[in-house]
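Ticket #4471: structure output looks truncated?

Reporter: J.K.
Steps to reproduce: submitted the chain below (132 residues) through the standard prediction queue, then opened the result file.
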Amino acid sequence: MNYTDEKTGQVHSLSNPQHEGYLTKQSEWIKDWRKRYFVLKGKYLFFCKDRNVTPHGMIDLSTCQTVKSAEVGKANALEVSTNDGTIYYMYANSPADKDAWIGAIGRSIVQAGATYQDDEPMSSGSEDGSEP
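Returned output as attached by the reporter:
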């Protein structure tokens, strides 16, 4: 299955994802909760109405700052925050499922972000970053 980004026309393959499964997501405009099937592949988190249906949305995790537990009146809730202030709210079916999603999305955010690039020169200071 593939997803075509409407803005760029880029085609993304969804085969061999890092993580996938159902989460219930708060819709961006109406703010109601809808069960969606999520596929995490590289720096993208795709979502669709059901498994084996072409995704209708995508979150570019390279534009995200954090993923963490959320307090939204739903058990097992999490939030993904973007650099422009957009926050996506979702909840999982169990605490273990929530933790697995937070871990998987967190790894993708780190790998997609500039902090993952190891091109900065090593400091000559001590290990804790303080000067000797």
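Triage note (M.O.): checked the attachment and the full token line is present. Residues 66 and 75 are 19 Å apart (CA to CA).
Status: closed, working as intended.
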